[in-house]
Amino acid sequence: MDLLVHGFATVLQPQIFFILVAGTLGGIIIGSLPGLTATMGVALLTPLTFSLPPATGLVMLCGIYCGAIYGGSISAILIRTPGTPAAAATVFDGNELAKKGLAGKALGMSAIASCAGGVFSALCLTFIAPELARVALSFSSPEYFAMGLLGLSIVASISGDYVVRGLISACIGLLVGLVGLDNLNGYPRFTFGLVDLLNGVSFIPVLIGLFAVSEALRTTESMLKTAHVDFKLSGVLPSFSELRGCAKTILKSSAIGTMIGIIPATGGDIAAFLAYGEAKRSSKNGEKFGTGELEGVAAPEAANNGVTGGALIPLMTLGIPGDAVTAIFLGALMLQGLRPGPLLFKDNAELVYAIFAGMFLANIIFMLFGLFAIKYIARVINIPKPILTPIIFVLCIVGSYSINNSMFDLLVMMFFGVLGYLMDKFKFPVSPIVLALILGPMVEGEFRRSLLLSSGSFSIFFTRPICVAILTLTVFSVVGAYIQQRKKHRLLKLEN
Amino acid sequence: MKKTWAMVAMVLVVSLMLVVAGCGGGAKPAEKAPEAPKFPTKQIEIIVPAGAGGGTDMLARAMANKAKDLLGQPVVIVNKPGGSGTVGFTAGQTAKPDGYTVTMFFAEIVIVPHLGIAQADHKLFVPIMRVNMDPAAITVKADAPWKTLKEFLDYAKANPGKVRMGNSGPGSIWHLAAATVEDKTGVKFNHVPYGGAAPAVTALLGGAIEAVAVSPAEVGAQVASGKLKILGVMSDKREKAFPEVKTFKEQGYEVVVGTWRGLGVPKGTPEPVVKILHDAFKKAMDDPGFIAQADKLGLGLAYLNAADFTKFMDADFANYAKLVDKLGLKQQKK
């Protein structure tokens, strides 16, 4: 505890605190721009930390990380463009709220839920990191496979009223996920001899295409057809009772996010989808998810910021980076001459606790900024469409290009933009594509890796308690969705 | 009179101008021929065929940081990850051969061509120099029953296919390192590819696999904290960071495998330009600040000049051709 107080004292020194604030605000900007992800922000600014003292540099990276993950929600809500993959699930309800003129509420909820998720995970990181680190190690390929399957099972719940079409979308996503070098034998699949496809279809251009470009195309169409439609705008924050209504969802999603963060090789995108699915399943208003529910914003946002602290747990305690961002953190720590792992706590306790304090404060800084700035940010919506839409197009193009510096990715973005537009016309939900594209390769790869580990025996999936538990949950999730659907149909028939 | 003087002055001035202009025009090519070309006159790009934040990226950034002052122009990093480096390799080898696009390629460039999937080819590059080399090592859990490399390999020999050996991806350098061990010692592993060295090390810590064949730096933190132990490094000499770990050679096995990174420009780049780049990057490599950074990252600096580097790559290329065949990684050609 003394050490934590000391950590806060370190971070609250004017220079360090200033850099933390600057990092957090920079992170928000990076995160809210589509194509500039948290990973890229941290990677590009890491060289800056070489010349800074360890505590200052690392605290700045914490700020960028937390800020960027939160920032992704701003563009997801306002312009239907997830700024980072982690905010993909925030689009569903966030953007619907904005369309109803409730952008203020959505942004406010996102700031508060993100902060809650981040602080929750920072608490876990500070107080029970070594215990939780064991969880990371108990996850092996069969568990990853089971978790991916569980994630895929929520396709049903994010497809709205069109379950079959949702499943078709998911299949498209799975197929797109097959493209590229297969990750166990290195065999090129569906690459058509194109070098650009060897690594698969890049995820972010697909995301930008499906959500942002298709939306921009729709807006263009409506501009041509109808007269100027203005969004009503209210900067109203979520009320206290609304917050209380979401409290349970926020808490549960924070826990989901932190757990997913701890498990290596998973990240904010998966966490957000799982939390969204769980919130929809357990909420009283589950039916209304996807039409602009505050809970539908709170769940993914609490979860993706919950990942931040969670991902640092295996890094700090075991020296294992849990995702791309923490892999860069590892490099930054090493460049400072530090070696993450149990010894770090012994040899550099002051620095460790400064990082912890930095994580707490970064979350609070972005929340204060988010709440304060809503009034101004939300005005984006009021920009006349003929001006805003081209700007969005430009952002989409810059963002898709900058991920891999690849012109090919622009073609991918345009293709999926048109696809998303057409799918929407024919009432096919697009989000299952995104979900399947994230989880498909993981499910396939881990399934095959499990069998490689067990020399071909399927018993590996049924003899590991965690794996069995997750698989059981998956069965319940699918059966539950089916029963719910049946009930709804019966009710509809009765009404008729 | 005045008019005449003015005329004379005019003529003088004009002829002077003509002479100066003529001299200038004539002097330029004369200057150009013997001297080095004016290079660089604009920013230089280094293609990193890997994601931002990894070892290759950090090495390139640290070098670029020093080289920009020596070259007098900005040196920017362009990350082109994908396909075990193939995307970046191909972009680098097809770039304009004017010296403004440098590529930091790595060991996979002599592996992927054998997989039958990629058009990458180290012979399409004019190497500038090798920068780094890190050996492979076999690492097991600290509480594993094997105390020495010999015990481990004897066990693997007695139980073919039973030892699960993690690597960082199919056809990756660490996959081929483990295959080299098989080739030289007659053991048989069950190769398990992961999406990088970190997930493989995690799997080892969690007990899903028995061993990993990655670099000592990639298991450094876990070895230091007593969770893992290195049985041997596949190098000529012991590692600076782990002086107590014996090499394979010391333990009686002739296995030397490692990853490496080097700089190159597309074939056809003028020689003087290559020399300017070489001199600048070599100086950057000798900078104490750069050396300290590489040390902290656990990246072993191992300079080789262009000629030796070419020989070195050709040898690796031939060796991996054989191994890829053995591993059955080669794809059917159309």
* Gyration radius from CA atoms of chain B, angstroms: 26 Å
Task: Give a count of the beta strands of chain B, DSSP E runs of length 2 or more.
Answer: 11
Count of helical stretches of chain A: 21
Low-confidence stretches of chain B: 18-34
Largest sheet properties of chain A: 2 strands, antiparallel
The structural domain count of chain A equals 1
Class of the largest domain in chain B in CATH? Alpha Beta
In spatial order, strands of the major sheet of chain B run 2-1-3-10-4-11
- Kindly state the percentage of residues in helix of chain B: 40-55%
Q: Largest inter-chain interface? A: A-B, 56 and 55 residues
Separation of termini of chain A?
Answer: 64 Å
What is the CATH topology classification name of the largest domain in chain B? D-Maltodextrin-Binding Protein, domain 2
Q: By helix and strand content of chain B, what is the structural category? A: alpha/beta
Q: Please indicate the percent range of residues of chain A in DSSP E strands (runs of 2 or more).
A: under 5%
Written as H for each helix and E for each strand, in order along the chain, the element string of chain B is: HEHEHEEEHEHEHEHEEHHEH
Order of helices and strands of chain A: HHHHHHHHHHEEHHHHHHHHHHH
Mean pLDDT of chain A: 88
Return the structural class of chain A. Answer: mainly alpha
The description of the largest β-sheet of chain B is: 6 strands, mixed
Written account of the structure:
The complex is a heterodimer of chains A (about 500) and B (about 325). Chain A is mainly alpha-helical. Helix content of chain A is about 75%, strand content about 0%. Chain A has helices at about 1-10, 15-30, 40-50, 55-80, 90-100, 105-125, 130-140, 140-155, 155-160, 165-180, 205-225, 240-260, 270-280, 295-320, 325-335, 340-345, 350-375, 385-405, 405-425, 430-455, 465-495, and strands at about 180, 190. In chain A, strands 1-2 form a two-stranded antiparallel ribbon. The model of chain A has no long low-confidence stretch (mean pLDDT about 90). In chain B, about 40% of the residues lie in helices and about 20% in strands. With about 325 residues, chain B is an alpha/beta fold. In chain B, helix 5 packs across helix 10. Chain B has two domains: about 45-135 and about 260-325, 3-Layer(aba) Sandwich (D-Maltodextrin-Binding Protein, domain 2); about 135-250, D-Maltodextrin-Binding Protein, domain 2 (3-Layer(aba) Sandwich), CATH 3.40.190.10. At the A-B interface, helix 3, helix 7, strand 1, helix 15 and helix 20 of A face helix 2, helix 3, strand 7, helix 6 and helix 7 of B.
